[in-house]
Amino acid sequence: MILSVITFTSFAQSDEDVAPEKNVLKVNTLALITGTGTIFYERKVSELVAAQMGVGYMNYNLGDTKFSGLILTPEARFYVRKNAIDGFYIAPYLRYSQYKYKTEEETDKGSFTSMGGGAAFGMQWIMKKGFTMDLFFGGHYTDGSVDIQSGDEPNDITKIEGFKTRVGFALGFAF
Fold first, then answer.
1. What's the CA gap between 88 and 120, in Å, rounded?
2. Distance (Å, rounded) from C-alpha 34 to C-alpha 16?
3. Which sign, positive or negative, has the C-alpha torsion 80, 81, 84, 85?
4. What whole-number distance in Å separates Cα of residue 8 and Cα of residue 47?
5. pLDDT tens-digit profile of 103-149?
6. Relative to the CA of 76, which of 32, 44, 51, 93 has its CA 20 to 30 Å away?
7. 151-165 pLDDT, tens per residue?
8. pTM of the complete model beyond 0.85
9. What is the chain's alpha carbon radius of gyration, rounded to the nearest angstrom?
């Protein structure tokens, strides 16, 4: 009996441990390495569930070729403790991507569009002043196509599908 009480109280959460915030706004710092700016908005839905929407924009040049694109990632986050937006979570998500490229002379251009879904897991920490850190890793299956036009030649459409990884370290604020 005494062992049960000790075990229960060691796993119980005090009100001080539960984050009072319901929203988180953050930026994925690892995506900046690839020239992609990604912003996430997460909203607490219940004590165990949060919904998040990620919007990313890629824009960089490689030689005389310019790449740009949009990434949308809606996800549901299931937290293992009754403290949604703070702690360990598992998150199924969808991913829509649309990229374009063109050369400076615009003789070559193309696009890549894909849709997929997968799962990630991670840990999010909310500090006392609302500063937030979110470390996550996962993967998804994607199905897409590449449409390339080179000069006056007919379009070359190629199907691309397969497994992709997702990793990130986001910093932001909870409010």
1. 11
2. 39
3. negative
4. 19
5. 888 778 889 999 999 999 999 999 989 999 999 999 999 999 988 88
6. 32
7. 777 777 788 899 999
8. no
9. 21
